[in-house]
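Tutorial sheet, problem 5. The three components below are modelled jointly, 886 residues in total.
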Amino acid sequence: MVRVSTPVRWLLRTVAVGYVFLLVAWPVSLVAVQTFEDGFSNFVGIFSDENTVAALQLTLMVALWAVVINLIFGVTISILLVRYEFPGKRALSALIDIPLSVSPVVVGLALLLVYSGRTGWFGPSIESAGWQVIYDSPGMIMATCFVALPLIIREVVPVLTEIGDDQEQAARSLGASGRQTFLRITLPSIKWAVIYGVVLSLARSLGEFGAVKVVSGNVTGRTQTATLIVEAKYQNFEQTTAYSVAFLLAFVSIACLVVVAFLRPQHEI
Amino acid sequence: MSIDVKNVTKKFGDFVALDDVSVSLPKGQLTALLGPSGGGKSTLLRIIAGLDNADSGSVNIEGTDATRLPPQKRNVGFVFQHYAVFKHMTVAKNVAFGLEIRKRPKSEVERRVKELLELVHLSQFAHRLPSQLSGGQRQRMALARALAVEPSVLLLDEPFGALDAKVRKELRDWLRRLHDDVHVTTVFVTHDQEEALEVADEIVVINNGRVEQVGSPDQLYDEPANDFVMSFLGEVTHLSGISLRPHDIELESAPRLAGGVEGTISRMLRIGFEVRLTVLTVDGEEVSVVVSRTHARSLGIAEGSTVWLTPAAGATVIPRMAAVG
Amino acid sequence: MTSALLGPPADIAGEASTGRPPRRRRTAGPRNTLTPGAGLGLGLAMLWFSLLVLIPLTAIIVTAGEGGWSSYVDVLASDQTWAAVKLTVTQALIVTVVNVVVGTTIAWVLVRDRFWGKSVLDVIIDVPFALPTIVAGLVLLSLYGPQSPLGLEWANTERAVMLALAFVTLPFIVRTVQPVLEELDHDVEEAAASLGATRGTIVRRIILPSLAPAIAAGAALSFARAISEYGSLVLLSGNLPFRTEVVSVRVLSFIENGNTQSAAALASVMLAVALFVIVALDIVQRRVANRG
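Model answer (structure tokens):
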């Protein structure tokens, strides 16, 4: 292995640590400082603001729905892609990654064009059936699903590939049905990958901003999520509230990261 | 007959893995499917188990047509080359799996698991995870797991292929003894002729998707149907138009026997008790000959010596085919 | 940590799909091994995928084309839009180059160096990915905004755009390069050293070429993310037309003005870039796989 000389090692180390400190660590810690500048009162205060509480509840509801939908879809697609052969498989596996590189604003626009109650392709007929998608929670859930779509799949597919299908075949030769094989063999083997994917999806879903902004209509108290309220409060010069909600979101997402960091190494397959 | 395979053909894309294969495997015996890798023997085993489906042909297990049955309905035990252990379950849970699937009463499951772990000498490891076992132990656990459901046939796909030589030899003896105790119809795939000759009651030689020969180890060794079977079961050399084994050649230092072929020893290699000679005959053939060390010494031969070669009386010989060898 | 997530697309469709030895790989051409149950699952999954992703994205292309070629060109050729495109692409390229250098350095430090606090650094790398983008903007404002403890007033400038893009794209190259560097065969480096190569030569001739595909993949993802960024810029850049307005903001203002066709036209360009990146990644991936 190449041994770098001491000065070079220190140079590289300083560049790496310095860059990450200035770009990430210091700014993030400043948010915490600003939130708790005047003690806990500002932070606790956000829970007495009706609109903020509503936004937090809405965020949680949307994120949970999106995670559940992506969980079912993600595990199904992963198994299909790894364990079966079918025409168009390669195209599908490439398309699955699209949401990772599409702008959230474009995601919102795309959903708007199809599901808008006035002008969308399907929107008017869905609306006449009594459903509203855009400017309501279904649209927000869809937008969140879209942006977090590949996360679980990208965790589960490599693990499924890695473990192979020997164990599943053994289970079938021992008399297990498809359902039994899935529940007793496949699911326990991919459990940690699924949990990891779910935590990541949750972090991503709680924090989605652009796509939700386009499809939600951003109605205070009704379709305003936590991220949207950060923007609104900041622009209304209620900076302490903005920082407090931002801190809460940052705290939750970083907690997700830490949980994942602890989960992973012990259960690596 | 316990397993009847009739006219089975299987293709993977353009590759013909099995070409109109028919075999009947008798009840209660230990049969080896022997052949080079890629020859189709594993595919045949997987088709018997229902893990792969034949493109055409039929599979009959214990009198029932199993061709269209899914693996879980065939009541076969299958042991995989890489063990296919359930990594997240303890050894006991692995063995109990098939019984739990069949919803057997708890007491029966416990009793059966205990018996089987004793049978495979893993009782003290019952509550360990498979990752804490050695390769040989994992394979014994996989065997117990397959036997737990009292399968009508036990199928083993290169069961000892991933193990090192010493463990492989131990497990081989152990499988033979186990079979003598349990008497379940057993089929195992191997590319190791020594393994097949030593363990099996009957051997099916498969090559290029076809059955080359079926018979007992003695039959195969003494009466090989063709050059391929002969060369696959042991070393083969050629002497004046026939194929025979190097140790079945009589070597003399003077032309005493009629029809002896004259040649010169071009190479001499001593390995343990045997001496391997390469003899260049006057006809321009390179013939391999194996003699015992004592015999070589008594003849007083060395590299460059002139010798005379004749097929030994009672040697297995077959006419040499033009295309082979 | 999130390497699987940020890395190039997992090779899901390739022959390695079953993880079994050669037997299965002989399968030539598309085959269908779906059982009825799996077929139903695929059908339902595809229905949802179409409703959620395929049809909406198609709607963008169709809407963009509705006004014909001339109106399409008009949208893209307008001064304000053109300025936004120029700004976005320039800043995205600058940030990608920075990431190539710094990201590779960070990956190197994480794999080859040992110091107190390294595992913290490793976790912090993922923070930009997990942090909500709007919060990311706010976070950067606290150090580089009006009340900056450093005395920097970068808010509402081009620098703010660069900063935001650098923040959100930080993990990409680090997380694609890191696992490759970890698995790099030390024997090869030792072999090169035994053949008389200096450290510089080993880095240049042995290590960097092995990392190149990962760096390229990370750079592509980083660029794609940068040109599509929105949330972190909202509070930080001020969205000043001709100065700090990026493409996503431009699309949003078209939407807010009810001008969906112009929004779709601009969005279709962004989609094309995203698609190009995915295809390029797929090709890089396959080339690396073939290299063995």
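Marking note: The radius of gyration of chain C is 23 Å. Full credit if you identified this.
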